[in-house]
C-alpha cells in the first residue's frame, strides 16, 4: 500500500483527468468491501437487496470477481439484473426499486489503462491494490458507505480516503475472520471514517467461515439467501449487514429492530420478490 500522500495524489490525478463529475444520491447508502479474505457467497449484494426491501435507499458499487464468479457484477449478470450505464439510469433504478447497481462508468478510465500498462509486473498485485482502494474510486456521492476491510493493515490508508469524502458518513468494519463484511458469529469492529471512534458488535449467533462458503452457482446462492433457505449463519450475516445499512443511513438507531426487520423481509419473501423485479427489468 502506498503511503497516504502518494495515495491521495493518485486519487487526485484520477479524478482531475476527466470523466463525469460525481453525482449526488442524497439519503442513499453504499455497501462495498475491499475483497480478499476467504471466499464466501456475495454477502454485500444480498445485503443491499435486503436493505432496499426494508425501505433503505441503496446505491451499490462493485466489480467482477478476480478469482471466481462471485463478484457483484458476475452475480447480478447471472440473475439478469441490469447494471446502470449512466447516472441517469442509476437514479432511475433507485427511484423505481429502492436500489441501483452502478456499472463501470463510475470508475476512472485510468484504472483499466493502468492494468494494461503494468505488464510485466504481476497483475494479481495490482488487482489486489485496486480492489482494496476500489470502494473509494467510484465517482458518485452517497450519504453513507459501509466498507468491509479484509486486512486490518489497510485501515490507515482507507481512513485517509474516507476523510476525503466530504459530507459522507463512512464505516470501516473488520473482524478476525478476514471476511470483508460484518459476520454474525464473531466480534466485529466498526470505525467511524477517519476518526479513531468506533464500536464493537458482539457475535449474535454460532457458526464459522465455512458456513459462508459459496456453492457452484452464485445466482442460486443469492436466491437461497434472499429466500431464507441458505444456512442460518449466512442468512444471519446478510441480515446483520442489511441492518447496519439501515442504522448507517439514519433510518433507525435501534440495531435490534433493524435486524428483526431484515429477517422479516427475508422470511416474508419481500427480498426475493425485489430480486425478481430487478431481474425482470433486466
From TrEMBL:
Q: Which GO terms describe its molecular function?
A: anthranilate phosphoribosyltransferase activity
Domain of life, per lineage: Bacteria
Q: Give all residue intervals belonging to the Glycosyl transferase family domain.
A: 28-272
Per the UniProt record, one Pfam family is Glycos_transf_3
GO biological process, any: L-tryptophan biosynthetic process
Name the UniProt key words of this record, in alphabetical order. Amino-acid biosynthesis, Aromatic amino acid biosynthesis, Glycosyltransferase, Transferase, Tryptophan biosynthesis
Q: Provide a GO CC annotation, any one.
A: cytosol
Which named protein is this? Glycosyl transferase family 3 domain-containing protein
- Organism expressing this protein natively: Actinokineospora globicatena
Lineage, broadest ranks = Bacteria, Bacillati, Actinomycetota, Actinomycetes, Pseudonocardiales
Amino acid at each position: 500500500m502506498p503511503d497516504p500522500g502518494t495515495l491521495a495524489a493518485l486519487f487526485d490525478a484520477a479524478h482531475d483527468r476527466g470523466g463525469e463529475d460525481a453525482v449526488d444520491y442524497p439519503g442513499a447508502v453504499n455497501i462495498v468491501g475491499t475483497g480478499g479474505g476467504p471466499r464466501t457467497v456475495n454477502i454485500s449484494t444480498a445485503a443491499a437487496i435486503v436493505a432496499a426491501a426494508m425501505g433503505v435507499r441503496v446505491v451499490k458499487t462493485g466489480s467482477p470477481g478476480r478469482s471466481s464468479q462471485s463478484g457483484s457484477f458476475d452475480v447480478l449478470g447471472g440473475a439478469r439484473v441490469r447494471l446502470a450505464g449512466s447516472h441517469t439510469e442509476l437514479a432511475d433504478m433507485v427511484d423505481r426499486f429502492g436500489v441501483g447497481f452502478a456499472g463501470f462508468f463510475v470508475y476512472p478510465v485510468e484504472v483499466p489503462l493502468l492494468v494494461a500498462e503494468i505488464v510485466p509486473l504481476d497483475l494479481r498485485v495490482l488487482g489486489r491494490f485496486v480492489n482494496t482502494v476500489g470502494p473509494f474510486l467510484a465517482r458518485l456521492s452517497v450519504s453513507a458507505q459501509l466498507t468491509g476491510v479484509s486486512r486490518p493493515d489497510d485501515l490507515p490508508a482507507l481512513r485517509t480516503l474516507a476523510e476525503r469524502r466530504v459530507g459522507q458518513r463512512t464505516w470501516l468494519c473488520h473482524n478476525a475472520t478476514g471476511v470483508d463484511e460484518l459476520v454474525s458469529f464473531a466480534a466485529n469492529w466498526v470505525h467511524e471514517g477517519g476518526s479513531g471512534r468506533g464500536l464493537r458488535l458482539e457475535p449474535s449467533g454460532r457458526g464459522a467461515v465455512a458456513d459462508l462458503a459459496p456453492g457452484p452457482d452464485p445466482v442460486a446462492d443469492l436466491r437461497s439467501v434472499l429466500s431464507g433457505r441458505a444456512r442460518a449463519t449466512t442468512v444471519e450475516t446478510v441480515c446483520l449487514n442489511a441492518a447496519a445499512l439501515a442504522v448507517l443511513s439514519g433510518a433507525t438507531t435501534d440495531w435490534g429492530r433493524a435486524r428483526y426487520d431484515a429477517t422479516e423481509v427475508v422470511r416474508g419473501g419481500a427480498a426475493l420478490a425485489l430480486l425478481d423485479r430487478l431481474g425482470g427489468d433486466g
